[in-house]
Predict the structure.
Amino acid sequence: TFNAILGPASSNVEVTATGESNRFGAGQVNFGVVVRWTDSKNWYKALINGTQFVVLKRVKGVTTQLSAQPFTAQGNTLYTLRLRVIGAVLVAKVWPSATMEPTGWMVNVTDTSLTTGQGGVRVLVQNDVIVHLAAFSESLARSQV
């Protein structure tokens, strides 16, 4: 697992990253963005793993799946992930970067476990897996839409 965490701790934030993996497989490779990161045991994450788009929370070292839906991701294809958190509401979406951004959010969940932290990127890789991060941005979020 590799983490790239940037900026000051914030409560209401949006993180967007564009990147690709040369391959996905067996649930052991994923590319994702995190918000409200305080350490490796406390964060929210939106990720793609080749077959699903998943939103997780990790609190005190225990990981819980908040949402999962089918999403086929191919190796060597750029994808953009966006995760926004305001108060207790997390919204997220993912799309192939060569296409238009979806107008609506694909995930909308509520959780009060974490209230502040940093944003960044978190990837899980195996041998011979290369993840390329093409773009990253983090900004304060003011509304859910």
The mean pLDDT is 91. The chain has no helices and eleven strands. Residues 84 and 115 are 13 Å apart (CA to CA). The radius of gyration is 14 Å.
